[in-house]
Design goal:
By secondary structure, the chain is of the alpha/beta class. The chain folds into two domains: about 80 residues; about 35 residues, no CATH class. A four-stranded parallel β-sheet has the order 2-1-3-4, sandwiched between helices. A three-stranded antiparallel β-sheet has the order 5-6-7. Helix 1 links the parallel strand 1 and strand 2. Helix 1 packs across helix 3. About 5% of the residues have low confidence. The structure holds zinc ion. Zinc ion binds next to loops.
């Protein structure tokens, strides 16, 4: 799904990207531009700003009242009916179809050989498959960090 998040929702934006959603987020994005992108690209606006959602004609938005990013994520998942778990591969986080948590680019598959130079040795030896952001070259894999995230997700949902 396509979202745009205001500057107070950095963690939420990164997590939604990891779950495969297309999230526009910049730490400095003026309200007027935020609203314009939401409208022109038909993105759901995620915001903590009560003032912002009173803008005339704004339809697709979610006002998040809680400051806790896990609570925010739960609200987004429930409000938009997202399915956070990838049942097909038995893993909690859908690595395939995921997006770079840093720059929002869709991840690409890479071979184990291609990953060799880009990930720590113990990761290379134990983890697979690997994916990479074609834009900022960050590597992704199913690791302990994701398992912790998945466990926390299960607790809140
Ligand atoms: Zn990236």
């Amino acid at each position: 799904m396509k979202f745009i998040a205001d500057s107070m929702l950095g963690r939420l934006a990164r997590w939604l990207r990891l779950l495969g959603h297309d999230v526009v987020y910049h730490i400095h994005l003026e309200d007027s531009l935020l609203l314009r992108i939401a409208r022109e690209e038909e993105r759901a606006l995620l915001t903590r700003d009560t003032r912002l959602v009173q803008v005339r004609g704004l339809k697709n938005f979610l006002l998040l009242r809680d400051n806790n990013p896990f609570v925010q994520l739960k609200e987004v998942i429930e409000e938009f009916g997202l399915s956070p778990f990838d049942k097909s591969c038995g893993m909690s986080i859908p690595i395939s179809g995921g997006r770079c948590s840093i720059c929002n680019t869709a991840l690409e598959d890479v071979s184990k050989e291609q990953a060799k130079a880009g990930v720590p040795k113990y990761v290379f030896d134990t983890a697979a498959p690997f994916r990479r952001c074609p834009e900022c070259k960050k590597f992704y894999w199913k690791g302990t960090h994701q398992q912790r995230f998945a466990k926390k997700l299960r607790e809140i949902l």
